[in-house]
Specification:
By secondary structure, the chain is α+β, with helices and mostly antiparallel strands. 42% of the residues lie in helices and 22% in strands. It has two domains: 103 residues, Orthogonal Bundle (Helix Hairpins), CATH 1.10.287; 302 residues, Bira Bifunctional Protein, Domain 2 (BirA Bifunctional Protein, domain 2), CATH 3.30.930. The protein has 13 helices and 18 strands. It binds one RNA strand of 95 nucleotides through helix 1, helix 3, helix 4 and strand 15.
RNA sequence: AGAGAGGUGGCCGAGUGGUCGAAGGCGCAUGCUUGGAAAGCAUGUAUACGAAGUAAUCCUUUGUAUCAAGGGUUCGAAUCCCUUCCUCUCUGCCA
C-alpha cells in the first residue's frame, strides 16, 4: 500500500511510476486520494474539537454530582446529549473519508523502481544475461512429460484420480529428487546466513492481505471456506507476516529467513494446452528466501539475493537467463523484479524458476513493520525470491541431462539423492 | 467438540462507572556517583492520527483515539451489556 504522506509530496513521481505500469488514470486517482485526505484532516480536526469539549463537560458533570449540585448537573447533561449527535455525524464523515482513501490505496499497485523499463508485457522485459544452451543438435531430446512417464518418475493420471489436474504424484526416484532438491536449496540458503523456518501453509485473511495477495489475487488462492483460511500461494505470505505489527531494531537487520513449503495456486484462466507436464501446477514445492532490510540497504540486498539464486542454478549446471521485468509485467506489490529462467531443450522453452523482488515499503505499510534506528522510525523494506521453485527445475534437469537410456543427476545433488543416474 | 477461568504498556501486575493513558515492580535509556564496574540516586521510557511552531516524516507545545477486536448502555466505560477472536484448565478425540 502506498503512503498518503509520500504521495502528497511526490505526486508526479508516483503518477509517472504508475503510468509506467499502464495505469492511465493514475494522476486522477492520486489527486482523489489527496482531496479525500484533505477532507479527512478537516473532519479529524473538527471531531477532536468536539470531543475535547465533550470530555471537559463530562468531567464537570462528575464534579457537580460529587459536590451535590444535582440540578446544575442535569442541565449540563442535556447539553452534552445534544453534542452527542454532532459527534456522531462528524465521526461518520471522518470514517467515510478514511474508507474512500483506503479503497483507492489498497487497489493501487506499487510504483516501479526507476531502473524498471517501461512496457506492457513480457516482450518489453530486459534480458540481463543469457548463458549458452549447450544443446547437441544431432541428439533427439524429449520433453520432460515424456521422460517422467518412461522413467516412471511422476504420474499425472493418478494425481487426476485422487485430486485433479495440476496435482502430480511423484514416484520413487522422482519423489527422492524432490526431497534432494528441497534439502539442497535449504542447505545452500543456510550457508548464506538464512534462518530456516517451517511455517503453517494455511493463513488467515489478515496475512493474505498483508503481503498483497488480497484483494488483488483473491481468485488465485484456494480458500478453506468455513474456516476463513487460505492455502498459501507462496511461503512469502506466512514468513513476511511473522513480523506484522512489529517495530524491529535496526541492529537486527537484515532479517534473513528461508522456508520450504508446498504452494497452492488456482491459476484460473491460465490453463491450456501450452502448459503441459510440470510447467504449471496447482500444487508445487518451493524454497523461498525472505529478507527484511532498511531502506538504505535494500537494493544491495536485492542484488545479493539474485546472486544467490544465480549461484544455485550454476551449481545445478543448467542453462539460464536473468531478466529484468518491465513495469507492465511486474507483480502488484513489487517495485522491481528479476526473473530467472532455465532452458528446457526437450520443449525448446525457457521456464521461469525464480522471481526475486524488492517490495520496498509497499507490504510493510500494510503490515505495519517498522525499523527503529536511534530515535528514527521508518517503514521496513521487504524482499523475497524463490530459491528455487522445484517443478521447472526438475523439468530442466530431466530435459538437459537425458542420455539414451538414462538421466544423469547433477554432481552437486548426488549426495542428496543417493544415486547418480535414473534408469528405466 | 463440551464445561469453566481469563485477555490491561516491552514484560509482570493493580485497578469493578468520573480525579485512569492507566498505581507498583521488572526491563531499558540518559545523567550523577566510581579508578572502572556493581549497588545506589535522579530523570525519562507505548502507538496512531490531528493542530500550532519549523526547511523537516526530526523536535517542541497541544488535542484526540487506543486496556484483544467490533458494537451498545451512560453526561462519563479498562470497569456494565452483546458479538467475534484468542489463551489457559478439565473432559472428549487424535498423529
Amino acid at each position: 500500500m502506498l503512503e498518503t504522506k509520500s504521495i502528497r509530496k511526490n505526486i508526479d513521481l508516483y503518477s509517472n511510476g504508475l503510468l509506467k505500469r499502464g495505469l492511465s488514470d493514475s494522476k486522477e486517482k492520486l489527486n482523489k486520494i489527496i482531496h479525500h485526505d484533505d477532507n479527512r484532516k478537516l473532519y479529524k480536526a473538527q471531531l477532536d474539537k468536539i470531543l475535547t469539549e465533550y470530555n471537559q463537560a463530562s468531567k464537570k458533570i462528575g464534579e457537580k454530582i460529587q459536590s451535590g449540585k444535582m440540578e446544575e448537573a442535569e442541565i449540563m447533561k442535556k447539553k452534552s446529549q445534544k453534542l452527542k449527535i454532532l459527534r456522531k455525524k462528524t465521526s461518520e464523515k471522518l470514517k467515510n473519508e478514511e474508507a474512500i482513501i483506503y479503497e483507492i490505496l489498497t487497489n493501487l499497485p506499487n510504483v516501479p523502481d526507476e531502473i524498471v523499463p517501461s512496457g506492457n508485457n513480457e516482450d518489453d522485459n530486459d534480458i540481463i544475461f543469457e548463458s549458452k544452451k549447450n544443446v547437441n543438435a544431432n541428439k533427439k531430446l524429449y520433453p520432460h512429460w515424456n521422460l517422467v512417464k518412461s522413467f516412471n518418475l511422476i504420474n499425472f493420471e493418478k494425481g487426476n484420480k485422487i485430486t485433479g489436474a495440476g496435482f502430480p504424484v511423484y514416484i520413487d526416484k522422482g519423489a527422492k529428487l524432490q526431497r534432494a532438491l528441497i534439502n539442497f536449496f535449504i542447505d545452500q540458503a543456510i550457508k548464506k546466513g538464512y534462518q530456516e523456518i517451517q511455517p503453517p501453509i494455511l493463513v488467515n485473511e489478515t496475512s493474505a492481505f498483508g503481503t498483497g495477495q488480497l484483494p488483488d489475487k483473491e481468485g488465485q488462492m484456494y480458500k478453506v471456506e468455513n474456516e476463513n483460511l487460505y492455502m498459501i500461494p507462496t511461503a512469502e505470505v506466512p514468513i513476511t507476516n511473522l513480523y506484522r505489527n512489529e517495530i524491529l531494531n535496526n541492529s537486527l537487520l537484515p532479517i534473513k529467513n528461508v522456508a520450504y513449503t508446498p504452494c497452492f495456486r488456482k491459476e484460473a484462466g491460465s490453463w491450456g494446452s501450452h502448459v503441459r507436464g510440470l510447467n504449471r501446477l496447482h500444487q508445487f514445492d518451493k524454497v523461498e528466501i525472505v529478507q527484511i532490510q532498511n531502506k538504505d540497504n535494500s537494493s544491495k540486498t536485492l542484488d545479493e539475493m539474485c546472486d544467490h539464486v544465480e549461484h544455485l542454478i550454476k551449481l545445478l549446471k543448467l542453462p539460464y537467463r536473468k531478466i529484468l521485468l518491465c513495469a507492465g509485467d511486474l507483480g502488484f506489490s513489487a517495485s522491481i523484479t528479476y526473473d530467472f529462467e532455465v532452458y528446457a531443450p526437450g520443449q525448446k522453452k525457457w521456464l521461469e524458476c525464480s522471481s526475486v523482488s524488492n517490495f520496498k515499503t509497499y507490504q510493510t505499510n500494510r503490515m505495519n513493520i517498522k525499523i527503529r534506528t536511534n530515535k528514527e522510525k521508518n517503514l521496513a523494506h521487504t524482499l523475497n525470491g524463490s530459491a528455487l521453485a522445484l517443478p521447472r527445475i526438475v523439468a530442466a534437469i530431466l530435459e538437459n541431462n537425458q542420455e539414451n537410456n538414462e538421466i544423469k543427476i547433477p554432481d552437486i545433488l548426488q549426495p542428496y539423492t543417493g544415486f547418480n543416474k535414473i534408469t528405466r
